[in-house]
Every structure is written in structure tokens, then in C-alpha cells.
Amino acid sequence: MSYLLKRIAFYLFTAWAAITINFFIPRLMPGDPVQALITRARGQMTTDAVQSLYVLFGLDKDESVVEQYFRYLGQLARGDLGMSFTFFPTPVAEVIGDGLPWTVGLVGFTTVLGFLLGTAAGTLVGWRRGSLADLLIPVTTFLSSIPYFWLGLLAIALLTGPDSFFPATGAYDTSLVPGFDLEFIGSVVQHGILPAATILISSMAGWVLSMRNMMVTVASEDYVTVAHAKGLPERRVMVGYAARNALLPNVSGFALSLGFIVGGTLLVEIVFSYPGLGLLLFQAVGAQDYPLMQGIFLVITLSVLLANFLADLAYLALDPRTRREG
């Protein structure tokens, strides 16, 4: 229990630090975001109207930084992430809420599936080292070195076109009305096949390599030799003794991958014009939309912290050495 309490305290402190840094990011960046918004709008505004914008975006010059900071904390407690410059006057929370399901659906599905398939394949290849299964290693090494976006560009060049089944851009057919009907769901699946495949191929290859290398290391440990000497079934030794311990380093990597799901695979979403958080972040950077960047960074940071906390819980279940009271 003391281990768990220490981890909770650590993550709470880290979350506070991330929120604080996130508060100062737009205030330390060069330029004036409100003036940039007025310039893009190309409109004449009175002094009172300009001052109202500063107040609206939490940049009131009549307040001290400390006052702005505590007001920012109060806004976060209410779930208020401010107003987006790019999609003004839409709140940042609403903009992120529109893009988050697409990213979680695409990147989340491929991340979990890639981890499960890659870990299972890596377990078998590592356990049967020296067999024909090792022929998979050069292939996975090559695939893991290829960037996601390059595979995406290659897929668009080779598999899309006027008469192709695979669309080149978007998340669904824009002529359809979004809803939970078979036609719309089919369009979403059709548009998601290529971006999902590019992410899955590269990510799965990495899990295969890491799990295979850990299995080779663990297979020579004494407790595996003892399990064999006891006459335990081969499958039980592989899964219950070797794979369970070889999996521990992959748990941390998988937790980080889960945390970065909400950030999306930025370049893949840009290549396929997929309306997730990655594409939103790219648009926010191009438009100097500080509130939207701030909101996306905060969501990504908190998601990574939550995923790492879940990984610590998984460690407690998988590795008895972390349960210090025992």
C-alpha cells in the first residue's frame, strides 16, 4: 500500500507541474495572440472590445500573473480550457471533444491490437529461437525502421485512386450524415483501413522485436530451468514463467503508447487528413492558436500520467517484487 500511495503522490505532483508549465507556455511564447487574432479577422475593434478579448482568453493585463494562474486553475476545475482562436468562439474543450473520438478510435484500436499481436508473435519467436521463426526478425527489423507517414504516403500512391476501394483522405464520406447506422459506420471503417494499417504494421514490428529479445534473455534464467526440471508442460513454462517476466518491460512501453493515443500519430493524421487531435494540433500551430495548443498538450500530458499509473498497477499484479510489504 505504501508503494501505491507514493506513486499516487508522485503523479499528483507531476500533474500539478504539468498544469503549471502549461499555464506559462502561451505567456512565454513571442507575439501577442489576441493581436494576431484581430489581424486575421481584419476588423476594426474598439479599445474596450480588445480588452474584452484579453479577459476572455485569460490574458487580462490588469491582473498579476499569480491572479491569472489561480483563475486558470479555477477554470480547469470547471473543465473550461478557454476559447479557440482558430474556431472562435467555439470552446477548446468542445473542439478537443470533437477530435478525440476519432483519434482514440483509430490510434487506440491499432495500438492495442499491435501490442497484442506483436507480443504474442515475439513470445513464440523468442521461445523457438534458432528455428525457422527467426526468419521473421529481419522483416520486423525493416518494418520497425519505416516511419508511419512514409508507409501512409506509399499506401496512398499505390492503393488509392478514382476506382479504388480505399479513400485517400478524410474519416468518412462527407455526403453522409454522421450517425450510428450501417452506411455511416461502413464508411468510417473504409476510410480507416489504410491509416490503421500503416500504424499497425510499424508498431507491431517493434513489439515483436522487444518481446523476442526479452524472451531470449528470460529463457536462460534459473527459474525457467527449474520449471522444465519439474516436468511442467511446455506451454505453461512459456506463458506462466518466461512470458510473464519478459512482459514487464513491455508494460511500460505499452503504457506510454496508451498515453500518447490521445495525441494521435500526428503525421499519419496529416497525410490522410484524418480529423483527430494530431491534425488539430497541426492546425493550431499553424494558426498560432495558443489556447487550443495548450488544451491539447494538457490532455496528452494527463493521459500519459494516467497510463503510467495504470502501468504501475499492472506491475503490482505481474511482479511480486513491487509488493514490498510481502
- Portion of residues in helices? over 70%
Q: What is the succession of H and E elements?
A: HHHHHHHHHHHHH
**What is the fourth-level CATH superfamily of the domain at 93-285?**
MetI-like
CATH secondary-structure class of the domain at 93-285: Mainly Alpha
Structural class: mainly alpha
Largest sheet, strands/sense/barrel: none
Tell me the Rg in angstroms. Answer: 24 Å
Catalogue the unreliable spans. Answer: none
- Based on Cα principal axes, name the global outline: flat
What distance lies between the first and last C-alpha atoms, to the nearest angstrom? 10 Å
Keywords: Membrane, Transmembrane, Transmembrane helix, Transport
Domain ABC transmembrane type-1: 100-311
Subcellular location: Cell membrane; Membrane
GO biological process, one term: transmembrane transport
Can you offer a commentary on this structure?
Residues 100-311 form the ABC transmembrane type-1 domain. This is Peptide ABC transporter permease. Keywords: Membrane, Transmembrane, Transmembrane helix, Transport. Its main location: membrane. It is a multi-pass membrane protein. The protein has 326 residues and is an all-alpha fold. It has a domain at 93-285: MetI-like fold. It is built from 13 helices and no strands. It has helices spanning 2-28, 33-41, 47-56, 65-77, 92-127, 136-144, 148-159, 182-218, 222-229, 234-259, 266-271, 277-286, 290-318. α1 (2-28) runs antiparallel to α13 (290-318), α9 (222-229) packs antiparallel against α10 and α12 runs antiparallel to α13. The longest helix has 37 residues, at 182-218. The relative contact order is 0.15. The model has no long low-confidence stretch (mean pLDDT 78).
